[in-house]
Every structure is written in C-alpha cells, then in structure tokens.
Amino acid sequence: MAFFKDSFSKLVDAVNQVKGPKTEGYRGQLCAEKLELVDEGLLGLGAVPETLTSSSSAVAFATNAGHVRVIAQDLDVTLRNPAAPVQPQLLLLPRPGLVLLIGVSARVACSENDPPKSTWIAQWWDLADASPVAQAAQAPPAAAELRFAVRACDVCVAEQLVFLGTEEGDVRVFDVGERVHLASYCVPGLSAFRAAQPSPVCALAAEGSAELLVANGAGGLLLWSFEKHRVVRSFDSTSPITSILWCPKGTHFVAASQHDLGLFARGSSSALARFTWPTRGDAAGLAGARLLHWEESEAPAPATSSTFGHLYLRAAQRGPLQRWSGDNWTVVDTLLPDVLAATRGPATLANLGALGGSSELSCEGPVFLALQPNRLMAVQRKSWPITWQSLPLVDVTSLELLPSSSLASPPKPAPSPVPAEPVPGSESGRRWAVKDGELQEGVTCSPEGEVPSDDGWFICSGPEQPEEPEALQWQLEVDAGEVHGEISFGLDAKVELRLGELVLRFDLAEQGLAWENNDQSPRSEHVELDLAPGTSHTVKAHFEELGTENGLFSLEVDEVPLPLPCPRSPLEVLEWRCREGELRVRHLYADPLEPEPDRALEPETALAEPMDAVATPVEWVQQMWALHQVHLQSFLQGTHEATGPPAELAAELSLEDAEGLWASGHGDGTLRIWLRRRSSLVLLHVLSVSPPATPYAWRPRYDVATAAPATSSGDVVDQLVYDGIDAAPAFATTSDDLVGGISAVALAPMAAAVAAGTGGGEVLCFLWRPSWSKLTNSEAAEWRVQSLLAKSESDDGSADCPAPTDLHTYGFVCAMRLRQHQVGINHLKLLADGSSAPRLLLCSSDAAGVLCITDGLNGQMLFASSFAIGNRSSGPAPPPETVEAVDFSSCILQAATASATGREHEAVRLSPTPPNDPNGPPGQSTGAVLVALSSGQLRQLAAHAAEFRLLDSRIRETRLPQLLGGCGRVLLLKLTEAFLLVVQATGASLFTRDRSDQLQLVSSGQARFSKRAMCAELCEMAGESCFFTFCGDTLELWALPGLHLVASLPLHRDAARVDAGYLCPNGLMLLRSRSGHHLRLCGLAGNPVAVAPKAAWRSAALAEALGGKDESSLPAAAATSTGSQSSGMFGHAMALLRGEADRGGPPLRAVLLGERARPAEVDGDRADQLRGLPPAWRDLRPKDPPARAGTAAGTAASAAGAAKGAAPAERAAANVRDELAQTTQRALERGEKMNSLANRSQRMAEDADEFLNLAKQINARQNRWF
C-alpha cells in the first residue's frame, strides 16, 4: 500500500509540475466588457482598375471584395460593404457626398428555398444626407437590385444623372439626386439602332445636358437628343467603338475602335479623319484604347489646319499612357508605360508628395491618375508615385511595428569620470600593430614605402620578384597572451604566417592551409578551410611559456581550432608575407593573459559618437520626411541636386498624435519607414537594397570599371519617371540575393539605423548621417571585391580598376553587408549597446539554423554558428533546427534548484554580478543573448569583449528550462525585470521572479491555447502587463503573470483569409491577406468610449473630402456641362466638386423626370411590360411601416417628417408631387395591364376555337376508309 501511495503522490506532483504551481485568481481590472476590437479598415492599394476615380481632394477605388477605399491627404477610410464579396465594375462620385458602386453580387436575397444567385446591384453611400454625419462611415449603404448588366456609363454632373449602358442594348437613367432611384426614362436600343437583335451598349459620352452619344457592340454610333426623344444623327463606324470623347467646345468628338481612331464633326455623319493605331514600340497595344482628355490649342487654328490639340489616351490592356500632339496627331509621347487604368486627377496632385503647403509644386497641363501593378502614379509631363497614406504599402513581405515609446527621447547619461591617460600604443594593456589599416609603433614592412589604403585596410600585394615578398613584421615583446587579427585575402592569394619556426601557408586556390614545423623534426600537413576572397577572416593565437615544458599554444581561424604543434622556442616575431595576390590587414593586436572585465549589453540608450548623429528620434523622423520631400521637389523641378532638408520644412511634420514607427519590406527589394499617427499613415523614407537603374545625385550608383558615379542612362521615359527611392547602396548586388524580396526588417530609432534581410541571405545595415559623408568602409570593401572579380573576368586578367571617387552623400548610408547566410533571412533584431565603446548589435538568423551577431558600425563578426542537427542515422533526415526568437539580456541566466515547497522545481537565476561592476569576479560575463530554437530548447550566448560564446546546455548552471512540448514554433520571447515569457503556437510558459529571492526566476505557470496562434506580442492595457495573440479569427488577451484569459474578441469574417499577422505593443494589429493585395488594420482599445470621438472625426473628414457638407454650402450646378468633363466608362465628371459648374434650372431633369408627357417608346417601365420582363429595379432597403393616414397627402407628409424633421417646405411639396405622380402612374399601369389581360384572354379563346376546328378536320380525314 505504501508503494501505491508513493507512486500516486509522484504522479500528482508530475501533473502539477506540468500545469505549474497553483496561482491565485485574477484580480485585475481588465474584462471583456471594457475591451473593444476596432476594425480601422484596409491599408495598401489592392484596387480594381475599372473603379479608379477621384474627387477634388480625394482618391477612391474599390477592392476585389467590394469595399470602397477613400484616401485623402490626411485621411484613409474604408467604406465597408456588408454584401461582400461583390465584384465591383463601376465606382462613381456623381455628386458631393455620394459614392455609387455598381457590381455583381452573389448574396442578393432570393426565396428561402432557392440558393443565392449572382445578380447586378447598385449600392450608394450618401454622406451628405446621413442624419448624424459622425456615423456616415459606419452606416451600411443603400442597395438596389438591377435586372440588367451595365457595360458603359457616363455622368451628367450638372443634373445629377448617371447614364447606364446595358447589355440589353438600352440606356437607362439613374437619378442620383436627393432621392436616389432608377428613373423610367430609357433610350431604346432596338428602335434607335434599327436592329433586329439587341446589342450591348459599349460606350457613352454626354455632351452638355441635351444630347448623348451611344455606341453598341454591333458597330453602331448615334447621337440621341433628350429634347426630341429620338436619334438626330447616325455616324459611320468601321468596327465596334470602345471609347468616345467630346472636344471641350462640343463641336467634334473622337471615337476609338479596335482598328483606328475616328474624328467626327457634330453635323456630319462621315468621319473627318481616321488615324490607324501604330504597330511599333509600346503602342502596339493601343487597339481599343481608352480616351481620357482632349485639350485644344489656346491659339485659334485656321479652317484648313490639321492641328487638333493634345489628346491623352491609354491602351486597353496594360499599355502605355500617351499624349498625341502635332499636325494630324503625328507626335506621340509616352508618359508612362505598363498602365492598368488611368483617369483625370484632381489639381491637388501637384503636392501629393508633401503635407505642407510650402511644398506645393507647379505643374503644366492636366494631371492624371495612373494605376500600375504595384503603385499609383501621378502623371503630367513627369511621373511620380503618390504617397498619400498607405498607398505605397503594397507587396509587403515583412513588417516591424514599434510603439510611440520608441520615439521618446532617451535620458541623458550621467557624466562618467575622466579616465587616466593611456600608455602610448596600448589600450588597457592591449598593444596594437595595425589599427584600422594604420601601422603602429614596433611594426616594420618591406619593401619600405607601403602605406595603408583609404578604406581602413593595410594592403600587401604580391611581389614582382618571388624572392622579395612584401612582408609585415612585428616585435611582440610579450611572454604570454593572445594575438588577434582581422584579415582578408584577394583572389587566388597565397599568404604565409610565420610564428617562429612554425610556418602557415594560406592558399585560396586550394581552399586550405598547409603548415610546416622547421624545428628538429620538420614535417608538413594540409588542413581544409573555407576561405573566400574579399571576406573578413579572424585569426587568434594563444601562447603561454613557450620554450618550456609547460608551454601552451593554440591557433584558431574563424573560431576553428587547428591541430598545430607547440613551438619549442619563445615567440618573439610575428610576420605576414604575401607571395601572390593580395593580403589586407585591418586589425592586429595582442592582449595580455590577465583577464579583463567584460562589457554588458545595456538597455538601448543614447549612443556616443559616431552613432549619436541625431539628437532625438523625433528629429530623425522629421529629417527623414523632409529629405524625402526635397528629393521629390528636386526631381519635379529638374534640378536633380543632392541638398539637405531645410529646418523649416522638417518642422512642418508634427508628432503630437504619433502612435509609433513602422518599417515594411517589399517584394521589389525596397524598404519603407512610416510614421503612424492618430488616423493617418505618413511615408517618411524609402530605401532599396540594390541601386535602381536610374541614378540621381542623392543616391549615386558606381560603375566598377570607372569607380565613378554613373550618369542617368536608359530610355527618356525612365528619366521622366521617378520611383520615389531616397537611398540605396552605391554598388549593385547579385540578383540571387533578392529572391523573394526583403524577408526581414529591423528598426532602431535610438541609433537612427535600419536593417534588411533578403530572401537570398544577404543582410544590409543602413545608418543615418544628417551631414555630408564619404563612402563608408563597407561600400569601399564592396568596390574592392567587385573590382577583383572584374579583374579576374577580364581577358588578360590585368584590368586595373581605379579607386572610387570622393563623393559625398546625405541621409542613409550602407554601413554593413553580411553574406554569411546562404538561405533567406527569417529574423532580424537590432540593439544599440550604449556602453563606453558603443556598438550596434545586429542579430540575424536564416531558415537553415545559422545565427550571426555582427557589429553594424564596422561589420565585425561577433558570433556565427549553425544550430542545425546533422542526420546521423540512415533513416529520414529530421527537420532542421532553426532559430525562432531572440532577446537580449543584461546578465547571464543560470539554473538553480529551489526546494521551498519540498519538491525540486526548475528555476532560473540571474547572475549576481551587476553590469560593469569592477568588484565582480574576473572573467565573469555579464551580458547574454537568449535564443529560442524550433525544438523547444532555450540557449544563451555570453557576451565577451569582442565576441559571443555559446554556453553549454549540458551544464546545470547554464542550462535553461525546457519549453512546452508539441506547442509549435516560438512566437514571442521576452525577458523583463519581472519575468521571462515564451509564447508558442499553442501554449505559453512564464517564469516569474521569486519573491523570497529577487535573483531567481521560478516556473510559475503554463497555459494552452484553444486555437493555434499566428503571432503574439507583449503589451500594457490599463496599466496591467499582458500579452495578446491572434488565432486566425479571434484576438485573445492574457493577463500576466497569472496567464489568465481576459477576453477572446472575434474579428471580421475577412480575417479568416489572412496568411500573416503583425502585432504592435500599443494594441495595433496588421493582417496580411492571402492574395497580398492589402493589409487590414485593427486596434485593441481598452476604453470603448474613447473610440467614438476618433470615429466621428474620421467620418467628418470623409464627408468633407467628398464634398458632403450642408446644403447651404453646396455649389450650384450649371444648366449645361462641358464635354471635357466626360471621359467615358473609366472617367468621371467631377466639375461640381471642383467648383467649375454653376447650378441653374434643371431642364434635363424636367424632361426626363418631370410631369410633362413623353413618348411611349422612351418609357422603360412600359417597354419592360411589353417584353414580358421583370422590373429593372428592385429596392433592397428595408421598407418603412405603413402610415395610418389613408390619403396620399397624409402618407407623403408622414414620410417627409420621418426623413428629416428640419426639411424645408419646398422639399415636402416636391415629395407630395412625386407621390401623387407615382400613384397616378401606377393606376394607369394597372388599367393598361387589365386591358392587356382581357385582350390576351380573348385571343386565347379564339385560338382555342380555331384549334378545335382543325382537330375535327384532321380526325375526319383519318377515319375515311379510302
């Protein structure tokens, strides 16, 4: 019995150990009722090309799911479509405050037993008439079902009418006035074109407010008069028309077809001229082009002139945007190639790149919006990317989100005591032979006259005579110690290292090292090494008491120990000899054997020179933004000069409502830095990991052959198109390094640095220099490598590449390149080490398990190792061990055993030695890097003076606790002063600091998730520490340290179609769609009441951007509209929003919608009845309850009062007249239907009698005997 009790007790203890010690219940203030998940809309582009449009101060388009994006200079709003998914076909802004979307939906209501059917619908958001304007953006749109498919449209802004060309061959009139509905007026296609079969309408163009050009798919082209209700002229066309455009005066028009472009006069049926589409160059795809704008010449032309002004058009399928000019339009200028959609843009496009009015740029001629595959461009004589809000946030492959605390100014460090004067030639006992390529005292070189190069490396070249090699000799003058060296080899170099009688021969051609021992028993052996030309290698020699029986000697190359014998004589002289090729020495020094105190990894603070170039992160952000504006201005003004940003321009960017900094990596190799504000996103700077094809003064691109900045080259179009990139390396990288674009990014505001890792395994670190600086050592080294490769690839191998010219740059410079990785980078992290000798630690890991730690300032390799486990068995290979998370610690974590409860629990103890404590034990490291592996192990690296060392996990003192098994990859690894948190895909582990001993971290709890998490982040809500996870369709918030689930908040249904999530400590979350077209922004708010003012401000700004203000402030519409306002299906006439129209009487509305009599053939409702078709319009809005009053006047009065209590008397009277007219019309229609039914019944009776007679006759014939 005692045996069973003991076994049961052990089982209970084991279960409790898995679950963790029992903790008290959650006593915090957080609860699900106090939390709200706010969907702040979509980010990025993701536009359907056919829906691109604009207003006077905003850009609008629809997404693939049917949501509408409205983006202005300080506004980015998503009008959510509750009927999504909807396939958008048209997006119009026909009047101030109204957004009209026409598309195909699969969720229109049918009967309960029938499945959903696909049908055309019209949806509109009326922001001007929303009862509270603050809720306009949140109100669902009104909707109506359309019986017909829409193939073309045009807008008459003055009369607030939209003409819809249908697939049935008719033209319907859509009233977008105060009461949006489909009018009964119809342009009949069969009678107008005199056709036997209906043909869909493919192009429309309204001239003024009285006539309409209509083209159908059968090649017909006619001019319809609304006043006469008939066709006034037909025009000759050789093929179906795809686009029509009136000239500004309304006397001529052009029609584009599949074969040519026809020029017509209003009073002539034949074409005045025809222009065949060119078939050469990028204009080969102009067949079926879309006509955008016709700009006539200012000077009057004679009657016989063939100058027609400027014509702007775009090819139908991903072709160029062109401008035709000259006699007979023979001069063709390509403004922008590869355009998906284009439309006339607002005049404010001239300052789309800036926030302040002082940055406004003057442009000549019209400005267009042009949509390319991954960007939205502003096109005039030159083209530049539109950087409003999140428009450039496309093709995102990696993201890092930093909270607003990253912009806080660091505390000023306490003044440190002035150190004593160091001994000449030494630093804390260190003796230098070569320092940054400069020779120190006690070092000689032969032959004399050698000088160090200008890039920080001392160079020894191969000799002309083999018996006179170039050598570097150094008198050590130490009995014991360590010699460290950083060297680099040229291509096919052969170098000797002489250590007394020991000779080491490095041979890059053989990829190895051969050594000889010239003592009493000479012998020679060969060791294979991985030696790459142009790559930095480290050499370390340790020696003690040489020449005695207790002598010790060891030598390491790139931290690889070599099996070398111990020299028998003391080491007095160290000598490097270059036999062939080139030897480059950067550092060579000796340290005494006495241990030195190690530096700790301190928190991120203000850095000393040369990293403390920017006073605060706020100033850095302002300078980045200002320099970005200066570059755009320089391009548009044609100066192409590299100038610094003026202080007054930088001060225009306000950071009062800043919420954080973002860094995004993109598939094209660009990296963008963003400022997230209360309701907007500001693009600060754009970098590229490779130099673009077109260089500029602020981003020079060097030619290796001449070592001079390359001038602007390429096509003229490339010189007129700006890509918006502000900084890039001076030398191009290989194309293999950009596979998959940028796979990881890291941002360090305190150090004004940003790092990028590519899909090919290359890592680049950029540092900000707010002053003119020369080429960095990294760029000079890259030139050296590429020049050697170019020399080796030459025919005779003697091509000499000159040194790079002295060119100054401003802003970001490439400070480091790392090519240690062979596969894509999956994790990057930057840490500004603010110790006495500042470093910028850059930690990078790849998918093959290789972890590297480098100094971003000088490129020094501090650690490089692979955690991948080799396959020792003959079975299938296990998955590679990869690094999934990294965090920095100010001290080493050590394992301990705590027995306070009588049982042994796994615990973690902090090193008792504080950082930089001079009284600590010698040789004790006080800094560490924590590494979480895919197998669930936690490893740590100890920070020493010039390197990091991996601690042995088999030793109890340095072994960290094991994570939860079977919980998937590590999503979050965070070490704070109170706990160590590790979040995995299906669980979390927390190690809190023991209250009885502040130096211990005891395993306090583990939790399992109900759903698999995609990402996790530590945050603070209402003053409490917690972390939140994204689990596909829900957001879960967990309180710390008890691991208590506070809330599980559901996300929008579109969240289930995401493939990646990015979280920010301030509660923001970005979800990337599987298609990659856009990002969804969500926010976790701890106070729902605080969300309402933010939404109200955004809704009011949206209504103002679209012109949706009070009626008293709306401009009046003109009686007629000009032809230049109409640009076909892909254009829009927004003269009313631009203030170009003057509202007078409504003649066209009176003709089409008034009470005057109209011919029966233009009555669409009657035509539908005669054809036996269902109604063309079905309102999907919920019906109001019936009024108690039985009279039509009472019904109209109650409806007017319910609509708006403060409506004027004129509006109520108009509603009454409309109701009476509709009632009369319905009565007439009912009488006509009854008469038609009676006539049909009579005809059916007559047909039945005739059928009976025929049947009798047939029967009589069949019964005859003959």
UniProtKB/TrEMBL annotation:
PROSITE patterns named in the record: V_SNARE
Record bears the keyword Cytoplasm: yes
Annotated region described as Disordered, given as residue ranges: 404-430, 900-926, 1159-1213
Keywords (A to Z) from UniProt: Coiled coil, Cytoplasm
Entry superkingdom: Eukaryota
Main location class: cytoplasm
Biased composition (Basic and acidic residues): 1159-1169
Compositional bias annotation for Pro residues: 410-422, 912-921
Biased composition (Low complexity): 1187-1213
Signal sequence, start to end: none
Residue ranges constituting the V-SNARE coiled-coil homology domain according to the UniProt record: 1205-1266
Subcellular location: Cytoplasm
Protein's UniProt name: V-SNARE coiled-coil homology domain-containing protein
Organism: Durusdinium trenchii
Species classification: Eukaryota, Sar, Alveolata, Dinophyceae, Suessiales
